[in-house]
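FAQ: What does the model actually see?

It sees only this:
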Amino acid sequence: MVADNDPLLREINAPLTVYFFGVRSHAFGMADTRRANYALVTVQEHLGPNDEYLDLPWAEYVGNKTSRFEFTVPTADASDAYVELQAYDVGEYGHELLVNDTELTGFDLPPANGWQYWMDPVTGVELREGTNTVQIRRDQSTTDSLAIGTLTVHWREPVE
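And it is asked to produce this:
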């Protein structure tokens, strides 16, 4: 039999604490103070020096940068943001992802044939309450052509 004051029993009965993106969350029905949210952006644009390299009827050729797409963040306290991106036929490093007209620091979309699904934290810029923008800019020092399918921006926000 284990005594009520046994340290092992206290440790086993302690609430479980889980860390998700640096935010503490409790198990056993205790209320979370933050929740996940996201914005899905459908891009479907072809970047390149000309429209001849990739034959993609679903992607509009736009040149060296995508359109500026808007998404809404409903809180002034967004944290732990990251982006996921579908890219097709990336041939070179050096393309930039801009959030609110600011290049992400550490952004590096790796070369890959065909489709890839890439994820990276949003660094060097903060999401703001209300309208935010996202855009991809092609490295013009290369002859690379690529296409962007969709882009998803994720963040955590307070539970109201």
